[in-house]
Amino acid sequence: MEKWMKFLEVNSSRIFDLTIEHAILVGLAILVALLIGVPLGIYLTTNDYLAETVLQIASVMLTIPSIALFGVMIPVFSIVNQGIGFVPAFVALVLYAQLPIIRNTYTAIRNVNPQMRDAAIGLGMKPIQRLFRVEIPNAFPVIMAGIRTAVVINIGIGVIAAYIGAGGLGVLITQGISRGDNYLIITGSVAVAILAMIADGILLWIQKRFTPKSIAN
Amino acid sequence: MITFDKTTKTYEGNVTAVKGVDFTVEKGEIVVLLGPSGCGKTTLLRMVNRLESISEGKITIDGQDSMSLNQTALRRKIGYVIQSNGLFPNMTIEENTMIVPDLLGWSKKEKKERFHKLMEMIGLSGEKFGKRYPHELSGGQQQRIGVIRALAADPPVMLMDEPFGALDPIIREKIQDEFLQIQKEVKKTILFVSHDIDEAIKMADKIVLLRGGELMQYDTPSEMLVRPKNEFVREFFGKDRAIKSLSLHTIEDLRDMIGLAEFDDAIADTKTINVNHDLRNTLSMLLNQEADQVIVSDDDGNKLGAITIDIVQQYLHYEIKAKPAPVLEGV
Fold first, then answer.
1. Neighbour-count burial for B79-109, b at 16+ CB within 10 Å, e otherwise
2. B82–A129: do the CB atoms touch at under 8 Å?
């Protein structure tokens, strides 16, 4: 234990830098995934046929082992000289985040009480007014749950990104494995877990803060 | 005024929900669409604000073909109340009520004034309830909010789809009375869907009785009860339609026609009833007590006379017998 404390003391600034790097990689990937996934999920509620296809593709995406997907990214992005590093890792994480975000958005909007929707239409709301005033506010908790799942998945998968040179906390773990250094492995793993818990906690706070009180339960 | 002109609704696969229905809802009247489930009453109602498309024929509102108007603008001019009140849980009572004025771009001040005026109309405090959310209100209160939401932008026409259907009988009756009071004031042209015969008789100026999408009879409640046009109408209102028709008449009507009996103060346990009560309630009161008379009083408490079962029966006999026998079709 003492030796570990000593290790942390010596390496604290490096651990901190890697954590920030990890958070930025995952954060940007989630941001882009949101910009794609939420509008797509909403659009799919108007197109049943496409919805099935897209949700299936997104499901398949999530079953691809992360190490394999990162591997596939390398030759693809080599074409533009970005074979290793941030870009392929970022793209892979965006893809992994799609399923929970699209599926939860789609399901949440679909499940808005049809009578509530009927009232909104009957009162003379245009589709876009209905979406922003009624459907999204009432679907918000479920959409947020999808985002939280995506964030936690991405923080975990982001570890593998170290193998293709994207940095982040995975660096500690991969180095630990290759050197047989347990302190590195444990430190990296604990840091990943703490990061995931903090991120989820923040998102949960946002979810509670912006969920209309009356639909919270 | 709403006019239905050979209005027809056909779904894909040639299922006809509404078949060439013709009738007019006059300005300021409540017309109840009545019929067994699947008779097309809700479909017909939803065709007015174009939640359902019109397959053939047309619907005109105040002389304007509903199809010639912009769909959204049309809906904002028509108040719409549904059974499960359809309040939005993410909005406060004030926001819910003021949706249509908000969509129409009213100012904050106008909305606030309107909200408080409407709340006053249903006897709830705007101050107290304005900031609350729908789930914090009772079912009856929520349904009242649903009604004033439809009235918010003062639309000339209102559509009500079983608005009181989900309430328990006691609350339902109270809200019906309250709504009739409001209607006296606002005089809207109202189309009202119901499957409850008693509610229809109570609320309607006229009833449209539908079966399988076809109009069976369009008449005032009393005409329909006393002179059903065909066997279906007769059966729909049932064998007790004579008793039902009693709820359309007050003691006052009876007094005008055949007069009351002398009252006897000596009879113990005699109850008193106001002259404006309907005869159906009076009859059940008579049947549920020991004494064979009920004393009738006016609003000031003066005793006008007494009413007995014999007199009610005499009136019923007179009311129905005095009118020509119904001409039955297909009998």
1. bbbbbbbbbbbbbbbbbbbbbbbbbbebeee
2. no
ipTM of this predicted complex?
Answer: 0.76
The encoded tokens of residue A124 equal: 């003379």
pLDDT tens digits, residue range B48-62?
999 999 999 999 998
- Closest chain A C-alpha to B54 CA, distance in angstroms: 16
Asked if residues B229 and B216 have their Cβ atoms less than 8 Å apart, the reply is yes
Q: Which amino acid is at A114?
A: P
Domains with residue ranges and CATH for chain A = 14-208 (1.10.3720.10)
Cβ of residue B105 closer than 8 Å to a chain A Cβ: no
Q: Which of B82, B107, B112 is nearest to B97 (CA)?
A: B112
Q: Which chain B residues are closer than 8 Å to A213 by Cβ?
A: 133
- Given a cut of 70, whether residue A204 has pLDDT beyond it is yes
| pLDDT bracket for residue B84 (50, 70, 90) | confident
For residues A141 and A210, what is the distance between their CA atoms, to the nearest angstrom?
Answer: 9
Note which residues in 124-163 of chain B have CB less than 8 A from chain A. 133-136, 149, 159
Contacting B residues, span 204-243, partner chain A, CB-CB under 8 Å: none
Task: Give me the long-range contacts of A54-59 (CB less than 8 A, separation at least 24).
Answer: A54/A102, A55/A99, A55/A102, A55/A103, A55/A106, A58/A98, A58/A99, A58/A102, A58/A103, A59/A99
Contact criterion met (CB < 8 Å) for B90 and A125: no
